[in-house]
Design brief:
Shape: elongated
Structural class: alpha/beta
Helix content: 25-40%
Number of helices: 17
Largest sheet: 8 strands, mixed
Strand content: 15-25%
Radius of gyration: 28 Å
Strand order of the largest sheet: 16-15-14-17-13-18-20-19
Length: about 525
């Protein structure tokens, strides 16, 4: 059973606070929209609720008690509503309106008042994603639950069970602990012919597993996103699992379908990222899902790329039911750097620097000093392991002769990150950075954006900047650093070069993401405002 509390009686001056308070224990936030048609002298519209619709932390169902839903319902879908429910008595063309809502990415709901006939909804067939049964007359809160609506609720559930899609039945009005129990008791025996008694209605738990699969050690960061997929058969049982192993390997959906075999037919694919629709190194996932006979696809994050995005529309056109936005925020965190990179066209940049308490990176006259301890050192190597490239300036290579390889932690399946040297000075052949332990790229010049554009073209989506003050300062001045990782050692050097000497004030607000002790050192992670592409 899903919980969808209404905000009709909320304090509108503190609406967001009240929604945040109940959202953690709710599946949907029910937003009643009125224009005086059903409920005289009461209006509650898009101006009030639009900020909630655009907030990705909430899934909102807009219940439109208005005169002209054909005109206004798509506006709520475009504003970000998870589902939009209109009254069938008020719609001019209910089937077309359902199609319009789906085309804008919302689930289509149809509501009936106590005196309405459910046969009109039955005629809509698979066009409907939700049936809302009002158990009170449209109006203000506090009305008593109408007992004679129990058979209508059962009838609605029977209609939902006949659908090939994942149709929800919502009971609206006079709801409390007692009436919830009465609704459940009345429908304890399944309707005759029902095949929906064991279907999953809340996909959060299955999506959480798909997101865990996306973070499997065999799912590397790289040119492609990390994706996990779970196949649930028609009986509600998990029959297939998979994750994407990196560019050129089968996508998560294909792996999971292979694991499920014939049991995928008639089932649901739960995927952490919208299935792709394009042919790259591998065929499109949309085609694999359609060919396997999957009837429903539930995904978390929409694909932000122009080439692969739009898979949901392809699936809908093929008659597959599509549910989007389930645990979207959690899925976005898995591919945070990748998403930012592909949206703007150059890699995500993390600048790492080990400094003393007085902000210095070396001793007097540039003498190399071991600042951080073993715990911070392991952390720094783990940072290297997760990126596609490590960028350093030629000055640092000549002064310190770093190897810039991943040590002390396992190398991930994507392999060693490419070592990138920027600058105009020649690098002697005996320098460690030119050894055979990892690939190396020499790039002439100091133009940060040119460096990033070239790496993006090579398939790199995240970069670790381990350079000295000159190159780091250049990236910061251009607004090309997304994240700062400062490893602060418990040492006061008193003299020597600073991490950022002579850098003009950036006037950039730094947001602290994390602070923690790493042995005897302190980690500070912060983000900077991102520059547009």
């Amino acid at each position: 059973m899903l919980m969808s509390p209404s905000v009709l009686n909320a304090d509108l001056t503190r609406l967001r606070e009240e929604v945040e308070r109940i959202a953690a224990v709710s599946d949907l936030i029910h937003l009643d929209v009125m224009d005086g048609h059903f409920v005289p002298n009461l209006t509650f519209g898009l101006t009030v609720i639009e900020p909630l619709l655009r907030d990705e932390r909430f899934r909102s169902d807009c219940h439109l008690m208005i005169d002209d839903p054909d005109r206004w319902a798509p506006e709520y879908a475009r504003a970000g509503a998870y589902s939009v429910t209109f009254h069938i008595e008020a719609a001019r063309d209910a089937a077309q309106l359902c199609s319009d809502l789906r085309s804008h990415g919302a689930r289509a709901g149809v509501a009936v008042k106590p005196g309405s006939n459910l046969d009109e909804i039955a005629a809509l067939g698979d066009s409907v994603d939700m049936i809302l049964v009002m158990t009170v007359e449209p109006g203000f809160g506090g009305q008593a639950f109408l007992d004679d609506m129990l058979p209508k609720i059962r009838r609605a559930r029977e209609l939902a069970s006949r659908s090939d899609g994942d149709v929800w039945v919502q009971v609206d009005g006079g709801i409390g602990a007692e009436t919830i129990e009465r609704c459940a008791d009345h429908d304890r025996e399944p309707a005759r012919g029902s095949r929906a008694t064991s279907r999953v209605s809340n996909w959060n738990a299955v999506m959480a597993e798909a997101i865990d699969l996306a973070q499997h050690p065999g799912a590397p960061r790289g040119e492609n996103p990390r994706v996990g997929c779970v196949i649930v058969d028609a009986d509600g049982d998990v029959v297939g699992r998979g994750w994407h192993g990196g560019a050129g390997t089968d996508h998560a959906e294909v792996v999971a379908l292979g694991d499920a075999g014939s049991r995928a037919r008639g089932g649901t694919a739960v995927v952490s990222l919208e299935p792709c629709r394009h042919t790259g190194r591998t065929p499109p996932c949309t085609g694999a899902l359609i060919d396997a006979g999957v009837v429903r696809v539930v995904f978390a994050q929409s694909d932000p790329t122009s080439t692969a995005g739009g898979g949901a529309d392809v699936l809908r056109e093929a008659g597959v039911d599509v549910v989007s936005g389930v645990l979207e925020h959690q899925a976005q965190e898995v591919n945070r750097e990748w998403t930012i990179a592909v949206q703007r066209g150059y890699p995500y940049v993390t600048a790492k620097c080990a400094v003393s308490l007085d902000g210095r990176v070396a001793g007097a006259e540039g003498r190399r000093v071991q600042l951080t301890g073993s715990v911070a050192n392991i952390y720094a190597h783990a940072l290297r392991a997760r990126v596609g490239a490590i960028v350093v300036g030629s000055g640092t290579v000549l002064a310190d002769d770093p190897q810039l390889t991943v040590r002390h932690v396992p190398l991930l399946p994507a392999g060693a990150p490419v070592r990138v040297v920027v600058g105009n000075r020649e690098i002697p052949a005996d320098r460690k950075i030119l050894d055979a332990t990892a690939p190396t790229k020499i790039m002439r010049g100091h133009e940060p954006r040119d460096t990033l554009d070239s790496l993006f073209d090579d398939g790199v989506r995240d970069v670790l900047l381990e350079s000295g003050p000159t190159v780091l300062g250049a990236f910061l001045r251009e607004g090309l650093v997304d994240e700062l990782v400062w490893l602060v050692a418990g040492t006061w050097l008193g003299s020597g070069p600073r991490a950022l000497p002579g850098l003009d004030r950036l006037d950039a607000k730094v947001e602290i993401m994390e602070t923690q002790a790493l042995g005897e050192d302190v980690l500070v992670r912060a983000t900077l405002p991102r520059k547009a592409a």
